[in-house]
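> call design_seq(struct)
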Protein backbone atom coordinates (compact mmCIF):
# COMPACT_ATOMS: atom_id res chain seq x y z
CA UNK A 1 0.00 0.00 0.00
CA UNK A 2 1.08 3.54 -0.63
CA UNK A 3 2.57 5.33 2.34
CA UNK A 4 1.34 8.61 0.89
CA UNK A 5 -1.52 10.36 2.63
CA UNK A 6 -4.07 12.20 0.50
CA UNK A 7 -4.01 15.95 0.92
CA UNK A 8 -7.07 18.18 1.27
CA UNK A 9 -7.04 19.04 -2.44
CA UNK A 10 -7.43 15.38 -3.39
CA UNK A 11 -10.01 14.73 -0.66
CA UNK A 12 -12.09 17.70 -1.87
CA UNK A 13 -12.77 15.94 -5.18
CA UNK A 14 -16.26 14.66 -5.90
CA UNK A 15 -16.80 11.17 -4.45
CA UNK A 16 -17.43 9.91 -8.01
CA UNK A 17 -13.68 10.38 -8.62
CA UNK A 18 -12.93 7.58 -6.13
CA UNK A 19 -15.60 4.90 -6.56
CA UNK A 20 -16.46 2.83 -9.63
CA UNK A 21 -20.18 3.63 -9.15
CA UNK A 22 -22.28 6.22 -10.93
CA UNK A 23 -25.31 8.21 -9.78
CA UNK A 24 -27.80 7.34 -8.47
CA UNK A 25 -25.92 4.39 -6.94
CA UNK A 26 -23.25 6.45 -5.20
CA UNK A 27 -24.57 6.34 -1.64
CA UNK A 28 -21.83 8.17 0.29
CA UNK A 29 -21.36 11.93 0.00
CA UNK A 30 -17.68 12.66 0.49
CA UNK A 31 -14.29 11.61 1.80
CA UNK A 32 -13.32 13.53 4.93
CA UNK A 33 -10.06 11.90 6.08
CA UNK A 34 -7.40 9.53 4.74
CA UNK A 35 -4.57 7.79 6.54
CA UNK A 36 -2.51 4.81 5.51
CA UNK A 37 -4.87 1.79 5.34
CA UNK A 38 -7.90 3.77 6.55
CA UNK A 39 -10.47 6.26 5.38
CA UNK A 40 -13.43 8.15 6.78
CA UNK A 41 -16.38 9.11 4.58
CA UNK A 42 -19.61 10.91 5.32
CA UNK A 43 -23.26 10.63 4.35
CA UNK A 44 -26.10 12.99 5.25
CA UNK A 45 -29.57 11.50 5.07
CA UNK A 46 -32.02 13.52 2.96
CA UNK A 47 -35.31 12.67 1.25
CA UNK A 48 -33.20 12.33 -1.93
CA UNK A 49 -30.90 9.68 -0.37
CA UNK A 50 -30.96 6.37 -2.21
CA UNK A 51 -33.30 3.94 -0.44
CA UNK A 52 -34.93 6.73 1.59
CA UNK A 53 -38.18 5.37 3.04
CA UNK A 54 -40.80 7.94 4.01
CA UNK A 55 -42.59 5.43 6.25
CA UNK A 56 -39.55 5.24 8.57
CA UNK A 57 -38.34 8.80 7.85
CA UNK A 58 -34.91 7.51 6.93
CA UNK A 59 -32.84 4.84 5.21
CA UNK A 60 -33.11 1.23 6.46
CA UNK A 61 -30.10 0.08 8.50
CA UNK A 62 -29.19 -2.73 6.08
CA UNK A 63 -28.03 -0.06 3.60
CA UNK A 64 -25.19 0.54 6.07
CA UNK A 65 -23.39 -2.47 4.61
CA UNK A 66 -23.28 -0.66 1.28
CA UNK A 67 -22.09 2.54 3.00
CA UNK A 68 -19.23 0.46 4.39
CA UNK A 69 -18.50 -1.22 1.02
CA UNK A 70 -18.50 2.10 -0.86
CA UNK A 71 -16.18 3.59 1.76
CA UNK A 72 -13.79 0.67 1.18
CA UNK A 73 -14.07 1.37 -2.56
CA UNK A 74 -13.30 5.04 -1.88
CA UNK A 75 -10.16 4.03 0.05
CA UNK A 76 -9.05 1.93 -2.93
CA UNK A 77 -9.86 4.88 -5.20
CA UNK A 78 -7.85 7.36 -3.13
CA UNK A 79 -4.93 4.91 -3.11
CA UNK A 80 -5.26 4.50 -6.89
CA UNK A 81 -5.13 8.30 -7.34
CA UNK A 82 -2.00 8.47 -5.18
CA UNK A 83 -0.36 5.81 -7.42
CA UNK A 84 -1.65 7.42 -10.63
CA UNK A 85 -3.55 4.17 -11.28
CA UNK A 86 -7.06 3.50 -12.56
CA UNK A 87 -10.10 2.93 -10.34
CA UNK A 88 -10.95 -0.79 -10.32
CA UNK A 89 -14.14 -2.64 -9.46
CA UNK A 90 -14.22 -4.72 -6.30
CA UNK A 91 -16.63 -7.30 -4.97
CA UNK A 92 -18.29 -7.42 -1.56
CA UNK A 93 -17.88 -11.02 -0.41
CA UNK A 94 -19.57 -10.83 2.96
CA UNK A 95 -19.47 -9.61 6.53
CA UNK A 96 -18.64 -10.99 9.95
CA UNK A 97 -19.48 -9.57 13.35
CA UNK A 98 -22.20 -7.34 11.87
CA UNK A 99 -23.96 -5.29 14.55
CA UNK A 100 -26.65 -2.70 13.85
CA UNK A 101 -27.65 -0.60 16.89
CA UNK A 102 -30.58 1.22 15.31
CA UNK A 103 -33.21 0.32 12.71
CA UNK A 104 -32.57 3.21 10.34
CA UNK A 105 -30.35 6.10 9.35
CA UNK A 106 -32.47 9.09 10.31
CA UNK A 107 -33.48 12.02 8.11
CA UNK A 108 -31.22 15.05 8.67
CA UNK A 109 -28.50 13.09 10.47
CA UNK A 110 -24.85 13.10 9.41
CA UNK A 111 -23.01 9.77 9.65
CA UNK A 112 -19.30 9.02 9.39
CA UNK A 113 -18.15 5.70 7.98
CA UNK A 114 -14.71 4.57 9.14
CA UNK A 115 -12.92 1.75 7.31
CA UNK A 116 -9.56 0.26 8.29
CA UNK A 117 -7.72 -2.44 6.35
CA UNK A 118 -6.92 -5.33 8.68
CA UNK A 119 -5.47 -7.69 6.08
CA UNK A 120 -4.86 -7.85 2.35
CA UNK A 121 -3.42 -10.56 0.11
CA UNK A 122 -1.62 -9.93 -3.17
CA UNK A 123 -4.57 -11.65 -4.88
CA UNK A 124 -6.83 -8.73 -3.93
CA UNK A 125 -8.67 -10.43 -1.07
CA UNK A 126 -8.95 -8.07 1.93
CA UNK A 127 -10.68 -7.68 5.29
CA UNK A 128 -11.72 -4.33 6.74
CA UNK A 129 -12.91 -3.21 10.16
CA UNK A 130 -15.82 -0.85 9.54
CA UNK A 131 -17.85 1.42 11.80
CA UNK A 132 -20.67 3.86 11.19
CA UNK A 133 -20.83 6.67 13.72
CA UNK A 134 -23.38 9.32 14.62
CA UNK A 135 -21.28 11.85 16.48
CA UNK A 136 -19.10 9.75 18.78
CA UNK A 137 -21.61 6.88 19.00
CA UNK A 138 -21.00 3.69 17.00
CA UNK A 139 -24.34 2.73 15.48
CA UNK A 140 -23.12 -0.07 13.19
CA UNK A 141 -19.99 -2.17 12.88
CA UNK A 142 -18.73 -5.14 10.90
CA UNK A 143 -15.70 -6.86 9.46
CA UNK A 144 -16.20 -6.68 5.70
CA UNK A 145 -14.53 -9.09 3.26
CA UNK A 146 -13.85 -7.80 -0.25
CA UNK A 147 -12.06 -8.92 -3.39
CA UNK A 148 -10.54 -6.60 -5.99
CA UNK A 149 -8.99 -8.48 -8.92
CA UNK A 150 -6.28 -6.83 -11.00
CA UNK A 151 -8.33 -7.38 -14.19
CA UNK A 152 -12.07 -7.45 -13.50
CA UNK A 153 -13.12 -8.44 -17.03
CA UNK A 154 -10.68 -11.35 -17.18
CA UNK A 155 -11.78 -12.47 -13.71
CA UNK A 156 -15.46 -12.45 -14.72
CA UNK A 157 -14.79 -14.30 -17.99
CA UNK A 158 -12.64 -16.91 -16.24
CA UNK A 159 -15.32 -17.55 -13.61
CA UNK A 160 -18.46 -17.77 -15.75
CA UNK A 161 -20.58 -20.81 -15.05
Amino acid sequence: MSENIADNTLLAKNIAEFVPHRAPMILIDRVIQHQQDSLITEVVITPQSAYFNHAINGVPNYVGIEYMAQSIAALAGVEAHLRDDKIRVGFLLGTRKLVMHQPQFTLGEKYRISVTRLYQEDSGLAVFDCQILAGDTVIASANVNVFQPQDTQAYIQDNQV
